[in-house]
């Protein structure tokens, strides 16, 4: 879990450890999302189903948020681009971290997409990877919700937008098992 908060021109930096393996009351739509079952949560990521996997992650996040009376997250293309690029970079580079091998941190990756241009912003990021049944949206969500830092990002009241990037493969040797690497980038622009 990685979080940055920039109110106007002031930068506050918060970093919490990763565990490996955001204002109005909830609307009627949010309440319905909290009761709804999410489709494809047991789907193992594969070529051709990544859009379904991303939709399952978004649904699971919004179901959690709704059950806590929080506003639902909306997908943002720029956040998604940053998240997907990071997931792909981790798989291709064989590393698992919020900071790239070149030293680029999460905020720089996201801001390079044009997200929050000339605005104050708050950003957060969760990363995870798994193989086999541990690579499904449901398994990844369970791991994130069991980690206080990752759960805090998912349930941070101020976050309004999300980008979900899922890359096929693992950032470490996986014994020939199919895997997937996930990055979720959260944001709000002020």
Describe the protein in words:
The protein is α+β, with helices and mostly antiparallel strands. It is 34% helix and 22% strand. The chain has six helices and six strands; from the N terminus they run E-E-H-H-E-H-H-E-H-H-E-E. It has a six-stranded mixed sheet. A hairpin with a 5-residue loop joins strand 1 (2-6) and strand 2 (12-15). Residues 4-34 have low confidence and may be disordered.
List the keywords.
alpha+beta; 6-stranded mixed beta sheet; 6 strands; 34% helix
What can be said about this structure in brief?
The longest helix has 18 residues, at 50-67. The chain has helices at residues 28-35, 50-67, 77-93, 106-111, 137-145, 148-154, and strands at residues 2-6, 12-15, 74-75, 121-131, 161-168, 179-189. It is α+β, with helices and mostly antiparallel strands.
């Amino acid at each position: 879990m990685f979080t940055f908060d920039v109110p106007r021109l002031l930068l506050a930096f918060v970093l919490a450890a990763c565990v490996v393996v955001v204002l109005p009351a909830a609307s009627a739509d949010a309440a319905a999302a909290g009761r709804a079952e999410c489709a494809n949560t047991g789907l193992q990521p594969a070529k051709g189903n990544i859009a379904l996997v991303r939709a399952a992650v978004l649904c699971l996040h919004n179901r959690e948020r709704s059950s806590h009376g929080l506003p639902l997250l909306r997908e943002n293309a720029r956040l998604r681009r940053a998240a997907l690029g990071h997931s792909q970079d981790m798989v291709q580079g064989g590393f698992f971290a919020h900071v790239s091998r070149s030293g680029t941190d999460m905020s720089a990756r996201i801001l390079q997409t044009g997200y929050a241009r000339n605005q104050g912003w708050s950003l957060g990021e969760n990363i995870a990877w798994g193989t086999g049944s541990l690579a499904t949206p449901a398994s990844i969500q369970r791991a994130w919700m069991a980690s206080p830092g990752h759960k805090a990002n998912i349930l941070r009241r101020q976050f309004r937008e999300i980008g979900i990037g899922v890359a096929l493969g693992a950032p470490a040797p996986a014994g020939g098992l199919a895997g997937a690497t996930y990055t979720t980038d959260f944001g709000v622009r002020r």
